[in-house]
């Protein structure tokens, strides 16, 4: 949590950090990823058989090596909009017998060469956990239960035996399962109403938890700010006594929300992810409201939020049907930094967040036949995933703020938009790490830092201006490392992201 006091732009900003005030544990799953059968994410992205850069499984080794740097805990699959017409049985068994199908979400052809077993093998090689999304469009409950049985079954049953026949003896133990994707949207095959969805999700959840009580089920929310979110939570968060006496387990473990932001103008673009912060706050309140109205015991686990699609994306600039290959600027990198600051600040409420997507499609990582390109947005993601883990700690910022138009427009009346956007953590290694995003396009800020105990390691992401990219054979935005003695004021460069890191001394510090 970071609090804010507005001061004049000509006053010296002050950032106060209390390393002893541990507020909430950060779930590592906020640094999760997402892969979808869309554009070049799968084919030519993580899977590229025949390329000299691929291993015997067809997995791109350079992509795996890069993604391992991020220590990604969970990867969502296979969509996304794609999943509304996806039938998982098409993608298992001998590859030469798998049917090619018309793909309606992104208007292509799905060969099914890469399917469940290939993805789960890729996850094992990467060292990450899978998160599957169920087909709530053309799919059936029987099909969903069969997929769970195929992945997790241990008995002498049909789909567990089919997995064994296909070469995998031991269960995969897939924990995370989403009850559909964006089923509210007119872009979806089998778009539905909130009433119909809530009824279906509740019934599917009952059956799935009977089959495997260890599953973590994710309800399909919208943006966290809508009547869809309220209604589905109200109808699906029920006391366990109201569900199945033979299986007294809460049916819904998480509630998903999605948000993409973008603006052609730098300041609305860089501050837009603050809308995600307000969305998390509203959705968290809706969870509490549903629990109160439905009389759920405080002893029952409280669902968390699953922000399982987020990024900077302009779907007109980078159309999905053409692969959605965004070219990211420094401005976009700063927006990603603000998104990640939001997730750290709201760690109490977040059980997972998945950047959409992991390779090529609106991604910080791009492939060519010869190698990979790390876009501008790669660097904030790397810094956060490496250092911003542990506990969210108390911080306060006093600085000036941006007062112009925001995107979305409603953000202006609901959140402050300070020039310096800050989050702070105390790592399990005893180090304080704070990220400061200076969104100002032309002004650096010499700032006073309170709570610095020792010499400071500094990581800076910036470039010559907010429009520079890394996509034309030149790395215009990269990571610079330096040191600061911790004395006096620190100057945060214009249009920059800075991570400051120092060893905490907690023995004399007030614990809030």
TrEMBL record:
The keyword Hydrolase applies. Keywords: Carbohydrate metabolism, Glycosidase, Hydrolase. Pfam families: Alpha-L-AF_C, ASD1_dom. Residues 308-496 form the Alpha-L-arabinofuranosidase C-terminal domain. It catalyses: Hydrolysis of terminal non-reducing alpha-L-arabinofuranoside residues in alpha-L-arabinosides. PANTHER family: ALPHA-L-ARABINOFURANOSIDASE C, ALPHA-L-ARABINOFURANOSIDASE C-RELATED. Belongs to the glycosyl hydrolase 51 family. This is non-reducing end alpha-L-arabinofuranosidase. It comes from Talaromyces proteolyticus.
């Amino acid at each position: 949590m970071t609090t804010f006091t507005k001061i004049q732009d000509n006053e010296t900003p002050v950032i106060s950090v209390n390393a002893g005030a541990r507020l909430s544990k950060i779930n590592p799953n906020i640094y999760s990823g997402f892969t979808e059968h869309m554009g070049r994410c799968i084919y030519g992205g993580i899977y590229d058989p025949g390329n000299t850069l691929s291993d015997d499984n067809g997995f791109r080794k350079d992509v795996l090596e890069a993604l391992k740097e991020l220590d990604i805990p969970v990867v969502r699959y296979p969509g996304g909009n794609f999943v509304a017409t996806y039938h998982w049985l098409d993608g298992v068994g001998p590859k030469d017998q798998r049917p090619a199908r018309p793909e309606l979400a992104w208007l292509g052809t799905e060969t099914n060469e890469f399917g469940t077993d290939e993805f789960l093998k890729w996850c094992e090689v990467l060292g990450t956990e899978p998160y599957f999304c169920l087909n709530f469009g053309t799919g059936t409950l029987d099909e969903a239960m069969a997929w769970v049985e195929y992945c997790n079954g241990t008995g002498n049953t049909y789909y567990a035996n089919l997995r064994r026949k296909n070469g995998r003896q031991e269960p995969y133990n897939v924990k995370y399962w989403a009850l559909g994707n964006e089923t509210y949207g007119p872009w979806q095959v089998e778009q539905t109403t909130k009433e119909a969805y809530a009824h279906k999700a509740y019934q599917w959840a009952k059956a799935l938890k009977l089959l495997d009580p260890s599953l973590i089920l994710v309800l399909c929310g919208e943006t966290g700010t809508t009547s869809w979110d309220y209604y589905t939570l109200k109808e699906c968060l029920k006391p366990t006594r109201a569900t199945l006496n033979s299986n007294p387990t809460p049916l819904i473990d998480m509630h998903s929300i999605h948000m993409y932001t973008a603006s052609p103008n730098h300041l609305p673009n860089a501050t837009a992810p603050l809308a995600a912060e307000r969305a998390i706050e509203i959705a968290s309140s809706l969870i509490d409201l549903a629990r109160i109205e439905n009389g759920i015991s405080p002893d029952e686990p409280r669902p968390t939020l699953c922000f399982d699609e987020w990024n900077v994306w302009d779907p007109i600039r980078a159309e999905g049907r053409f692969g959605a290959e965004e070219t990211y600027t420094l401005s976009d990198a700063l927006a990603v930094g603000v998104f990640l600051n939001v997730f750290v600040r709201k760690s109490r409420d977040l059980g997972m967040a998945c950047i959409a997507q992991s390779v090529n499609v609106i991604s910080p990582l791009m492939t060519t036949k010869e190698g990979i390109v790390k876009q501008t947005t790669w660097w904030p993601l790397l810094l956060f995933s490496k250092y911003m883990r542990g506990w969210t700690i108390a911080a306060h910022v006093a600085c000036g703020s941006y007062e112009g138009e925001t995107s979305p427009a409603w953000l202006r009346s609901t959140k402050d938009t300070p020039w310096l956007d800050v989050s702070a953590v105390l790592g399990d290694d005893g180090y304080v790490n704070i990220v400061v995003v200076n969104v100002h396009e032309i002004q650096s800020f010499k700032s006073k830092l309170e709570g610095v105990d020792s010499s400071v390691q500094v990581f800076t992401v910036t470039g010559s201006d907010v429009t520079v990219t890394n996509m034309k054979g030149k790395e215009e935005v990269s990571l610079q490392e330096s040191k600061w003695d911790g004395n006096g004021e620190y100057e945060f460069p214009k249009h920059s992201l800075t991570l400051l890191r120092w060893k905490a001394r907690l023995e004399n510090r007030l614990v809030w």
